[in-house]
Every structure is written in structure tokens, then in C-alpha cells.
Amino acid sequence: MKKIDPIADLSRSDKWYLSGNRLQWAPPFPQYLDYPGFWDEASYFNYEFAPLFTWTLLDEDGREIPLEFRSRKWRPDFLQQKYDEFSSRRGEKDQRLRLVEQKTILANDVASCVVRLRNRSRKKRCLHFVIWTVQQSFPVKQTSWLSEITFDGETITFVKNLKPADRPQLRIAVSLGMNQAVTSHAISLSQRSALQPHWRFTPFYETFVAGKLPDTVKISSIDNEGLLYFALHTEINLKPESEKSVVVGLAIAPQTAPPKILPETLRKSHPIKTNRASWRSYFSQLPQFQSSDEYFTRYYWYRWYGLRLNTISVQEGNYQYPFVCEGIEYFRAPISYSAMCHMRENRWRHDPALAAGSLLTFLDNQREDGGLRGYIDVNHYRQELFYHADWGNAVLELQRIHPSQEFLAAIYPGLKRYAEYFDRERDAENSGLYDIDNQYETGQEFMSRYLAVDPRADHDNWGEVFRLKGVDATVYIYELKR
User: Fold this and answer.
1) Average pLDDT, integer, range 42-51
2) pLDDT tens-digit profile of 124-139?
3) 51 or 385, which is more confident?
């Protein structure tokens, strides 16, 4: 059998998910996947952040150079896309610019693109490269708004305040920059319109004059509400039949994070090489597996890719231990129904911290009545959500691989309270069988087992909708007490 390389072996052309730590770019139905940069929605924890950024190439006269998407290649460590300068003239096709863009998201939550521009003609090309983004800012409506906007000569920074209708405000620091000297910049408040990655829809389309942006910051209006456009520009001179690379990026971090994380990342490291080394290190610390059936091999390593894609390891708010999220978007949070599975999977790692963290996160946020929350946000709790979970068996299986009396001593008080909660609240008859209160608690919604008890069982409600003794719920508590 050939030597396996999980990163290369997982390569495909029909995937695009990338993830750092808090920041993940995994739009389920992307509209602008073929465009430069990261325009479709990202997630910071489970808060939507859109867009990240895009970049535009202008010719010697400041006119946009349209790009024709050619191909895509995805691997766990990067997403590569190729473009050609669009031309309708047949004789000029071999003279067009060719661009290769490699996108990645680093572990420090920097979304970065390495753009390699190749001049295939025998003429010198003087180009203008602009990285830009647009962010909604509605300080009066208090839905999503920006503050503390600055430009320090190389990086644009601002604080973005995210406030969904059903969750508390989250303040994050954002930086936009590149590894080239900034020739000009512009920040402009505009009226609200569709968020699209088209240069012609930006205020810069008209204000890019004499080879530069206006170097102005205009962020006020009658109510200071609308869209804030940010742009950084640099000049690129390409000799005949030569190429040059530009590295651009956007960093998102807690508001208290050092403001220089982006320029330091872009200057001191090559983002693609850095992320490749990080993924290789991760895969090397896992149990190695290879089968004569390549599909088994690929599936094995793809599952490990998925676990890392959805892992968050921070010490912020309600998150003090590493854990694996159940999925993307809404599911980018610790959810108890899947956490027991993540414990079993990650017990095979050399380091048990992630497997242990999947339980410790819930015990650290245990309810006053002893129940374990079903879903934990970084900065608040969803009071009604609860799932039955086989914590006892997950702990036993983790102990088989990584025995630790210290870990058992740490989790025992919380699990004891959890068992007492079930005896008190879920078995009033002292029968040894435990109650399910609604269809969501087991993750098995809209099943006949519930409708047989109550015709209203499939209504969209948490809390106590009905009372049904569950074999699964009972087995879970049996395993816990055992």
C-alpha cells in the first residue's frame, strides 16, 4: 500500500470549509464561492459574520480587470482557486494575467489569501490591487454596528458589535491588512444596499482617481447608519513574463486581543505553509490507520478532519475547556447530545484534554438543579434546552485509554448532582425508570413513540410537554450510576 498523506488524500474540488479556532468559514449554500476572498458568511463562535473580505484588481487606468474563474481545489489546510483575466479577443488569450489564490484560516483566527499574479505577456503591467470589505452598521437599531474605527498607515481596525435578536451583544476586534506597503486607503459610510462583492457597487468605483483611493475617512451621516466600506490599495508592477505574490488577510479576535496580530501574522509567516504544518502536526498525533480499501482510509481521516474543523479551544466566558461543536452555524457550540460521542472519538488521541473537555465544559456550566445544559453559548445560557446523554459510558471508555484518578475526582461531584437531579425530577415514583419530557430531549424528534403517549407530542415545544418513561434515558442513568 502507498504511504498515506491525509491532507493530500482528502483533496477534492467540491468542498470549501475552512476553520481556525473561534472563526470558521463554512457557508452551507455559498452564493459567491467562485469570487476572490471570503464573501459568503462566516461564523465567529455561533455568531454570523458577513462578509469577511474580497479583493479587486485594477489596470493601469484604474479600471477593474474582470476575472474568469477557472478551477477549485480544496484540502483541509487551504482552498485554492484559479482565475484568468477575462478577454473576449481570441488572439489575446495567451497574453492574459493568470492568478492563483490560496485561501486559509489560521489557528489565530486570521482569514488570509495568498494571491500569485503571473504576467504571461511580453509587456510590463502596472496594476492596482485593492483589498476591501463592507460591514453593516446600525447603531440606532442596535443589531450590528461598528465603533473605534482607525487606520494606522498599514492596517484598518474596528470593533464590531454583534447583537442578534435572541442573544446578548458580542464585541469583537477586526483588522484588515496586507503584506505590501499601503499606497492609499479609504473608509466611507454609504446607504444600505445588497452586500455583493462587485467593485462597481462600491463608493471606490468613482473615487479611485489618478491611480489611488482618496485617503479619506467618512463615517458620519444624519443617523450614522448604513454600510461602512473599507479599502486598502497597493501598486503591483509586473515585468514581462514574471509573477509576484500578495498576502492579504482579516483577523477577528476578542476585543481585548493585541491589535497587531494581523500585521505580525502577515509579516512573519507564510499563511499556507503555517497552516499546512499545523494540520500535519494534528494528523501525526492521531492513531494511524490505512486499509486496502481506499474509501475506508479516506473516511477515517475525513472524520478526524471534521473533529478538528469543529473544535474550539479558548478560555472565554462559558468556555474554559476545549470541546467539539456539533456542526456549523447554529450548531457551532457545545451540545450535550453529541458531546458524549466526541468524548468516545477523541479518547483515541494521545492527549485526552479534548475528550475530557467535552464533559468538563458542561460540568463547568451545570444548572443549579444539577441538570446539564443542552446547549452552551459563550456568553449566555438557553434555559430550556436539555438532552439526555450517556455520560457514564463515555467516562468509562475514556478511562480505558487514559486512566486518571485526578479527572475522576474532578468530575465526580458534578455527575453526582446530575444523578440526583434525575432521581428527584425525572423519577417521582422511585421506579428506577426515568422521564422524557418532550420530543427534542433525545434528539429523536417526530417519532411515534411520543405520539402514542400524547397527540400534542410533536408540537414545537421544550419544557414538560408529556411524561414518558424512556428506555434510552434509563440506560444512560444506569451506566452513570454503574
Assistant:
1) 97
2) 999 999 999 999 999 8
3) 51
Handedness of CA 190, 195, 200, 202 (dihedral sign): positive
Instruction: Answer positive or negative: Cα dihedral of 275, 47, 26, 130.
Output: negative
Grid cell 462600491 is found at 202
DSSP element (H, E) containing 58: strand 54-58
Q: What residues contact residue 352 under an 8 Å CB cut-off, 6+ apart?
A: 346, 398, 401, 402, 404, 407
| CA 29 vs CA 15, 55, 82: distances in Å | 11, 21, 21
Q: Most distant CA pair in the chain: distance in Å?
A: 87
Once rounded to an integer, what is the mean pLDDT over residues 34-56?
A: 98
Instruction: Give the model confidence (pLDDT) of 249-263 as tens digits.
Output: 999 999 876 667 888
d(CA 57, CA 63): 8
pTM of the model: 0.94
Q: How far is CA 404 from CA 122, 137, 351, in A?
A: 68, 50, 12
Q: Tell which residue, 201, 232, 249, 229, has the closest CA to residue 135.
A: 229
Give the integer Cα–Cα distance in Å for 111 and 176. Answer: 10
Residue 433 corresponds to which amino acid? L
Contacts of 317 by beta carbon, 8 Å cutoff, 6+ apart: 378, 379
Q: 233-256 in b/e burial notation, b at 16+ Cβ within 10 A?
A: bbebebeeeeebebbbbbbbbbee
Q: Is the dihedral of CA 74, 79, 80, 83 positive or negative?
A: positive
| DSSP code for 37 | S
The whole-angstrom separation of Cα 240 and Cα 2 is 42
Structural domains of the chain sorted by starting position, each given as residue range(s) with its CATH number in brackets: 6-278 (2.70.98), 310-481 (1.50.10.10)
Strand partners for 335: 375
pLDDT in tens, 24-34: 999 999 999 99
